[in-house]
Amino acid sequence: MISVVCVYNDEETLKRALLGSLRHQTAEFQQVLLDNRDGRFRSAAEALNYGARQAKGDYIMFVHQDVWLASKSWLEDVESILNAIPDLGVAGVAGVSENGRNWEERVRLSIEVLDAAYGIDQITSPEEVQTLDECLLIVPRRVFDRLQFDEETFDGWDSYGADYCLSVKRLGLRAYVIPATCGHSCARRAGYQLWEYKNLLKYQKRLYEKHHKHYGRISTWMEELSWLHLKLREIMAVLGPFYLSLFPPLDRLLQKELSGCERVLDLGCGHHSPLGSCRIPYSVGVELFEPSLQESRRKRIHTEYVKADIRAVVFKPKSFDAVIAVEVLEHLTREEGVELLGKMAGWAKKKVIITTPNGYMWQGTCDSNPLQEHRSGWTAKGLRQLGFRVRGLAGWKGLRGCYASIKYKPAFLWARVSDITQKVTWYWAEQAFQLLAVRDVSNEQAREPE
């Protein structure tokens, strides 16, 4: 039997995600829910150790509130997989191996990922990793009796899982990612810079100090840890706010453009729209691909949702302050895109905002979503002819390749070079990798004759 231990601070998310997927499981299980809405637990390690003391199963599953299990037989299937691993110390659904040239090559997962642009496929059999992501950890009862989470060193909410993986290896056991499909609604690593995570650097340094003498390289879900990486993070932690003011990311630029807009329509909203960071009072997300639509619902990015083809959807004239389409136009033919832009101008009172790659960039089907195929390319000159003012994003186009990934190593350094070049490409959009185009339809209405 598996004991499911979850510490939560959002009851609605817990019910909608984890509990919803546990409700119809075929296997018997124990549920241990720890309510931390009042902050009774000061750290994840403290809370999970407390929950484990109540667990009665052969395996203890420590899981986040926003994880959901993909099948009714998930617990039953997982227990069979775990029973077949003789040297199991801890298992999970996302982790990072020591083998590989970069993060993308080292990552192993069985989470449903809607960013297959990373080129990461789900595993089909258990694979050993160095560390696991903390969204879901499963520890055999006999192992946990020997080794608990380190409450003293990791007295917060970061790095406790990576520490457990590295510690269990020193007992002669191993950490595995297992093929157990599930989902996770956390937007971590999406929309934030690493230096913006509160306390993360502090616990990464503690993790490195505790284990670096035993491991040549420590690879975690968030990033690889080394003396140099940590020093760079220390610098960025200080310079980060100033850096973002000089080189604002898309969500901040979008928030500025949407100032004064209270009703926004997001066409082709996907599962992680930057509108989620813009604090819009009322927004509608339109999406045709069901997995992306459901993921966005779970994250509660928009007020309302419409499942529809954006080429066929209809809204009342001037029913939104702004209409946006982020990385959408390139998925339509040129004719379909021009027609959609005309409709967007009819639905918007103030602005139409789009982003798109600069020129045609090949992309095929990904995320099992045929709508991801690129079918057209758009230029700064062409968008200006359609009435848009155009700026350049993502720096000089020569530094990025497929899926906007940095071409050169080390990626961290060249990403900063890309940021610096954006100070030029912002005004010289023809040389940018990505375009931000804004059409002020309110000014057009003001010029119309009576």
Quick recap:
The protein contains 14 helices and 21 strands. The protein is an alpha/beta fold and 450 residues long.
Give the secondary structure arrangement, pairings included:
Layout: E1 2-8, H1 11-22, E2 29-35, H2 44-54, E3 59-63, E4 67-69, H3 74-83, E5 88-92, E6 94-96, H4 103-106, E7 107-109, E8 127-129, E9 131-132, E10 136-140, H5 141-144, H6 160-169, E11 174-177, E12 182-184, H7 200-211, E13 218-219, E14 224-225, H8 227-246, H9 250-257, E15 263-267, E16 282-287, H10 290-299, E17 304-307, E18 320-326, H11 334-347, E19 348-357, H12 380-385, E20 389-396, H13 411-425, E21 432-440, H14 441-447
Parallel strand pairs: 1-2, 1-3, 5-11, 15-16, 15-18, 16-17, 18-19
Antiparallel strand pairs: 3-10, 4-12, 5-10, 6-7, 6-9, 8-11, 13-14, 19-21, 20-21
Helix pairs in contact: 6-7, 7-8
Overview of the molecule:
The chain has 450 residues and is an alpha/beta fold. The protein folds into two domains: 2-241, Spore Coat Polysaccharide Biosynthesis Protein SpsA, Chain A; 247-447, Rossmann fold, CATH 3.40.50.150. 32% of the residues lie in helices and 23% in strands. It has 14 helices and 21 strands. It has helices spanning 11-22, 44-54, 74-83, 103-106, 141-144, 160-169, 200-211, 227-246, 250-257, 290-299, 334-347, 380-385, 411-425, 441-447, and strands at residues 2-8, 29-35, 59-63, 67-69, 88-92, 94-96, 107-109, 127-129, 131-132, 136-140, 174-177, 182-184, 218-219, 224-225, 263-267, 282-287, 304-307, 320-326, 348-357, 389-396, 432-440. The strands form five sheets. It has a seven-stranded mixed β-sheet. Strand 18, helix 11 and strand 19 form a beta-alpha-beta unit. Helix 6 packs parallel to helix 7. The longest helix has 20 residues, at 227-246. It is globular, with a radius of gyration of 24 Å. The termini are far apart. The relative contact order is 0.09. Residues 187-191 have low confidence and may be disordered.
